[in-house]
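Hello forum,

I keep getting stuck at the same step: I have a sequence, I want structure tokens, and every attempt I make locally crashes halfway through. Rather than fight my setup again tonight, could one of you with a working pipeline run this one for me? It's a single chain of 419 residues.
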Amino acid sequence: MPPAPTLGGLVAAVQRRSAQRLRARVLGADDVPIFRAAPLDSAGAGDLSFLANPRYAKQLASTGASAVVLRERDAATLASASATFSRIFCDQPYAWFAFAAQELAPATAPDASVAASARIDPSATIDAGACIEDFVAVGAGARIEAGAWIGAGCIVGMGARVGAGTRLHPRVVLAADCSIGERGIVHSGAVIGADGFGFAPLDGRWIKIPQTGRVLIGDDVEIGANTTIDRGAMGDTIVEDGVKIDNQVQIGHNCRIGAHTAIAGCVGIAGSATIGKRCQLGGAAGINGHVTICDDVVIGGAAIIGASIATPGVYSGAFPVMPGVLIVEAMAQAAAILGFATLSAAEAQQTLFYFAGIDSARFKRPVAPGDQLRLEADFLRAKAAIGKYACRALVDGQVVCEAELMCAMRRMPTAGGAG
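Reply #2:
Ran it on my machine without issues. Output:
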């Protein structure tokens, strides 16, 4: 076993792995050996940990880690933590930690071989550098490229392609004519290229529509266990480069998933939906068929998206994410409080404010249990007893929602009933 890297060596390795995109400054000993990556609350000597979310800052005081990566702005937290560990300051500590964890636990590479129990069609092309494990079936005209690793019991259909350096864990099905690019990872039980759910109604019965398209998957894609991606009905289902898909996700026929989108477990995406680039879909979200979601959209867990989304931002789902309507109501209350502050005590006793309208609402990120919501309101103008306010809701100094709200001011009726 090679010796453990020192912290200084790990910093250099992360710079190399990130192509110099992540630079770090070390405060403290850089010759300490680092053996493992671990969370703050269970880390011990020889462990590397990280702080990316300020809600875990209190754990710095008791962590046993030898080194912690965090942002420069979190350095003030260390003053009360009596830190004995080395600090690595980086603008993106979670990404830095991810590269460091890869260095500490490098992926194993298999020996090139073809198991005797594998069934390979004579017309298939198997690169000499590929690994084919027991009971794999490879169909006619299929292509397995250099460094690919096909786990036990996998099925690679006729005409299918597995790109260089891609790993299929045991019992993956890559159906006929489907393709996955280079450096991919597909976990056990995934089925890529099953028929899409295509049926035409006739007299109370269903007529099957042949699913003649393919599934085309780009480079650097990871697909979780028991996820299913259906082939296109006529055109293709496409998953672009860098997409990350969790376990038990269903992607219907003719969908297109944009590059570097992340999809959490149990998401269902109905046929012919288009998901943009760099989107994030929370667990158990449901996307209706034929909708289009633009780039850089975040969908909250358990949200149901029934219409297209054309504006980047955060679209919240059910509890435990705070619904957007409650955030707007809270901002309206802040605007009303500001309105009351402009009145004398006597006027305030005889005045009511009503929420009258909303313009230019933008949701930036979800609000979760434990978040402290800060509300801000600025008066813009008034016309005919209708005031307009610029309102913001913030968590940890970041805007989560902003909008222009209208409040109507009305005098309370007098005891005699006159307004």
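The radius of gyration is 28 Å. If your local run keeps crashing, start a new thread with the error log.
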